Amino acid sequence: LGGDAQIEVNFHDSLFGEKTGQAVAGMKKYVPTPDGKLKAVMDLAFGQTDQEGNYVVDPDPQRLAGTASHEAFHFLQDFYAEHSPSDARLLKSVYKMKDGKVNYKALPGSIRQLWKKYGPDAHRAALRGTLDPSIMSNPAEFQAMTFEFYKRAKQAGVKSPLSGSYGNFFDFVYRFLPRLKNSLMGRGFQTSEDLFTRVGQGRTQVGG
Q1: Strand ranges, E, within the chain
Q2: Crossing angle, helix 85-93 and helix 164-176, to 10 degrees?
Q3: What is the DSSP code (8-state) at residue 38?
Q4: Exposed, middle or buried by CB within 10 Å (0-12, 13-18, 19+), for 173?
Q5: In which band, very low, low, confident or very high, does the pLDDT at 149 lie, cut at 50, 70 and 90?
Q6: Phi and psi for 165 in degrees, rounded to 5?
Q7: pTM of the predicted model, to two decimals?
Q8: Contact 180, 187 (CB under 8 A)
Q9: Residue 173 in contact with residue 73, Cβ under 8 Å?
Q10: What is the DSSP string of 87-104?
């Protein structure tokens, strides 16, 4: 995605978790390069699992964009941890685990208020303890969902939805993610139709 932050983006008809074998919309990984470094790779799938558990191809541009943003967020978590370790440790300390899950009620009030206003259904589920276990048991995924609500607040005109180190990190991510879109556009993917045409022709790789 420009500069030293190179991320290779690959598109697939289908994608399955390496550990679970279940269909996933996207994933991030690091692969070794011939010069001994690690290359960041984002895999995105055109398909998804429907409510009946069947795998169907669903090349919806908005869904793909959302998945790309989600996976990019995780790369940025790693980047932030490397370049601002003290802030990263502080962010990590926000999450108190209880019985293997994020203790939602122990989170700072500002975060819970953000969820309540911009993700009311998720807020209620988190209070009841019925939120998707893959989110509640994984602080990184929980933070990614918090960022989704942060984005909604920013898009609604809220200047600083969260303050302190948490707000600084989310602001950093919020300003960076548009580079993902610009990077794709800069490589000729001007529209979703153009993207899908190129994928159909086998040109499925977008290097940073």
Answers
A1: 7-12, 26-32, 38-45, 47-49, 55-57, 97-98, 101-102, 205-206
A2: 110
A3: E
A4: buried
A5: very high
A6: -60, -35
A7: 0.63
A8: no
A9: yes
A10: HHHHHHHT--EETTEE-G
The pLDDT tens digits of the residues spanning 52-106 come to 666 666 666 666 667 777 777 777 778 777 777 776 776 677 778 888 888 999 9
The contacts of residue 198 (CB under 8 Å, 6+ apart) are 188, 189, 204
Tallying the residues shown for the chain, one arrives at 208
166 close to 113: Cβ distance less than 8 angstroms: no
Q: Using CA atoms, how far apart are residues 127 and 114, in angstroms rounded to an integer? A: 14
Strand pairing report for 38-45 and 26-32: antiparallel
Pair 23, 55: CB distance under 8 Å: yes
Instruction: Give the span between the Cα atoms of 49 and 51, in whole angstroms.
Output: 7
Residues whose CB falls within 8 Å of the CB of residue 201, separated by 6 or more in sequence, listed in order: none
Please write down the long-range contacts of 61-65, taking CB distance under 8 Å and 24 or more positions apart: 61/192, 61/195, 63/25, 64/192, 65/181
Residues 6+ apart with CB under 8 A from 133: 101
